[in-house]
Amino acid sequence: MANPCLECGVCCTQFRVSFYWGEADDVTPGRVPIGLTERLGPHRLMMKGTGGSAPRCVALEGELCKSVKCGIHLNRPTPCRNFEASWANGQPHDRCDEARARFGLPPLRPEDWLDPIYSPVNPPPENDPDLPEAV
């Protein structure tokens, strides 16, 4: 799989996602949709669904541990932008591993990020018409 997060999503069900109110689209156009947030304090908002004892972010779409996506991925708040899946950037991350473990999932491995069709072990053919031309 090229991105194992699209078959997981458990991080969106484990943590309160709180952030500075200025990230909302009523203040900063093109950012977090204000309708998907609730006030946490005078200067903080949180994503709806993430504040209780059984959090699930309202922006998470799909079936957990099968096929998921963030409905506001391009406009997600800073905590989501900063959350790193294990090995996505070449190193493990405890919070990802812990969230996966709560669902009985194993930690991600470096090889989970390899595209099963084309990888260093199985490189693409030189004249593959589906690949973009080199610049």
Notes on the structure:
With 135 residues, the protein is α+β, with helices and mostly antiparallel strands. It has one domain (4-105). The chain has two helices and five strands, in the order βββββαα. The protein has helices spanning 78-82, 94-102; strands at residues 18-20, 37-39, 44-47, 60-63, 67-70. The strands form two sheets. The protein has a three-stranded antiparallel sheet, with no helix packed on it. β2 and β3 form a beta hairpin. The longest helix is centred in the C-terminal third of the chain and has 9 residues, at 94-102. The mean pLDDT is 88.
Total number of strands: 5
Report how far apart the termini are: 26 Å
Helix content: 10-25%
Outline: globular
Number of helices: 2
- Major sheet details: 3 strands, antiparallel
Strand content: 5-15%
- Helix vs. strand class: alpha+beta
Number of domains: 1
Order of helices and strands: EEEEEHH
Uncertain stretches: none
**What would you report as the Rg, rounded to the nearest angstrom?**
18 Å
Q: Average the pLDDT over all residues and give the rounded result.
A: 88
Main sheet: strand order = 1-3-2
